Amino acid sequence: MRGCLFTLLLGAIVIGFVIVVGLPAAAAGILTAGLSTAGLVADDTTVTVTSDPPTDFLGLRADLVRVTATDATFRGMEIGALDLALGDVQILERTAGSVDGQLTDVRVTGAGGQRITVERITLLGGPDGITTTTVIPNGEIRTLIADAIEAQTGSRPTSVTLRAPDRVSFTLGGTRVAGRFAVTPDGDLVIRGDDGPAQGREVVLVRGGDDLPIELTSLKVTASGSLRLSGDLAIGILG
Is the peptide bond before 197 cis (omega within 30 degrees of 0)? Predict the structure, then answer.
């Protein structure tokens, strides 16, 4: 009888260990592989999986998954640090009921090969879509504009100025040119000339979903002359 009780107790301990330790580790491994499939590359990616009660893991579901990484790359972006919290995660399906987090010190390449650095990209959403918001500082966006126009025309503009809500003006070959920022139906960020010889012409600054894995939906020039961008994440985070 004692032997039977010991065997049952040992079995219960083993099952409990598997549920509490083994299944979270396995879930973390599956999700780490999904992140790699999605395009995340980093030497120190950490995936922490938690659920209350732990028996939820038996249904291959987790209440919360936290993903952190530094010095990472993701679909053309170089990321200084990544910190994401995913809620109600279906592990095998690699879907999440909610996403909340940020990427910091992000560097991307613009349409003309220009390097763009943004301090932070925030992500927030759920299974129907993830919205993103970022701000390109005034100095960065002015350089991006000048580089893109020079790549297209062969001449570099001077005195680039931004003004709320969406205005941009610059001097090119002694002529003052005015235009507006716009988002195309494909989610690209462009400048459209609205007067003189530049009227109706477009200069592409960033290709949404290509240069940046974000399909842009809206923009706004801030009071400080920076450019605030919002859009939808164009790819799945978990693969």
Answer: no
Q: What's the number of CA atoms in the CB half-sphere (13 Å) around residue 28?
A: 16
Q: Say if strands 46-50 and 40-41 run parallel, antiparallel, or are unpaired.
A: unpaired
Distances (CA, A) of 183 to 44, 193, 202: 36, 14, 11
For 12-37, the DSSP string reads HHHHHHIIIIIHHHHHHHHHHHHHHH
Q: Would you say 72 and 39 are in contact if contact means Cβ atoms under 8 Å apart?
A: no
57 part of a folded domain = yes
Q: How does pLDDT run across 218-227, given as a tens digit for each residue?
A: 999 999 999 9
Same domain, 183 and 201: yes
State the total domains in the chain.
2
**Does 123 share its domain with 48?**
yes
Chain centroid, CA 185 distance in Å: 19
**Residue 19 belongs to domain spanning:** 2-129
pTM: 0.78
Q: pLDDT of 86-107, one tens digit each?
A: 888 887 777 888 999 999 998 8
Last residue of a domain, one of 129, 158, 192: 129
Contacts 24+ apart (CB under 8 A), 136-144: 136/226, 136/227, 136/229, 137/226, 138/162, 138/224, 138/225, 138/226, 140/116, 141/226, 141/227, 143/114, 144/110, 144/114, 144/116, 144/205, 144/206
Q: Is residue 203 part of a domain?
A: yes
Sole residue written with tokens 């025309």: 153
Which of 89, 109, 129 terminates a domain? The answer is: 129
Residue 238 lies in a domain: no
